[in-house]
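Something for you to look into today, if you have time. What I am after is a single protein written out in full by you. I want to see for myself how the chain folds. Could you add the entry underneath, on a fresh line?
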Amino acid sequence: MVTKRDYRDMVAGVLLLLLGLAAAWYASENYRIGTVTRMGAGMVPLALGIMLAGLGLVVMVSGWFRKGIMPEVRVLTPICIFGSIAVFGLMIQPFGLLPAVLASTTVASLAEKEFRPLRILLSGLVLCAAAWGIFVFGIGLSIPLLSWKP
């Protein structure tokens, strides 16, 4: 269904605007801003928050003047995404990094309309390799790759 306005961009713009304003407010209230020549710890977060709010305003206003389609709202999508985060958090300690990443990838992939087992497996394996490469090999964290502590 075609709508008079692009509501997806308008909602995204509002969210970016609110997030940017919140970050700018937090930086200005909790960190020393300083001056341009002697920057404090809050100068960059404040500037980035203001830029994000400005970007949100541009996205929101451009969506107001453009036609769009009414997006399909699927409740299952955010449930699967947040569920994948919970699964990872619950599995990392007793089972290790690799099973936690594989399970998290599987739960997150349920947010898609079509179930593609080969794609899920390949994504999980690539993410396992990336997690190992970044956290274990690169940073040197002592996360067990496989563990059994039920």
